[in-house]
Amino acid sequence: MTCRGISFLPTPTPLPTLAVTLSTKGAITTQETSPGRFAPEWIVKFTVTYSPTIPTSSTPIIFLAWDVTDVSRYRLQYRLNGEWRDAVLGIGCMAGRDFDFYEESPSELNVSEYYGTFRVLAPGNVWERSFSVFGLDWECLDESNSGPAGDAFRLQYLGGSLEWWDYGRREEHKGTVVTVNSFGEVVSPKNNGGRGELVLLPSNVLEANCCSSARG
Hints:
single chain; four-stranded antiparallel β-sheet; three-stranded antiparallel β-sheet
């Protein structure tokens, strides 16, 4: 647009937002996995909420679910002697039972067919999954065989951008193919096909205390 010799850049179209909320029902418990060896148990639920650009819009979006479940996007800490310390999470994904497996890497995936890898959310709907925080490989430097180190743990989803997303439902994407590698990274299309970068904000910080049996 030009006005009396002055050029104005077009206003970028606002993007929808996805918010992640973490919740839990109670304290961290423990179970004996082998003689003299105990492991903590903490069940957490993530809830993903989609807010469209226009509040009255009914347009859904489809997106790569790994961006929510990738363990590297979470921070796990434990409290020991009044100090919060970082635990080391392994490699994998939360709620892994919902995900598809591929024989090759990279793999070309039709987004309308892989229900575990690509999720669809419409305005007003949520995506929820419960998972065991300690069901994946993790390391606590002060851990002992008598139980988990620390008297409390806390977890947060750190946020980040979506590797791939688009507007529409599965039936509108029967011809859409996305190539991903074994790490869940999108190889093609580059830069999300030219669409803007949709960023997931960090979640709340979820904290839970260890019950007396979990502390050993």
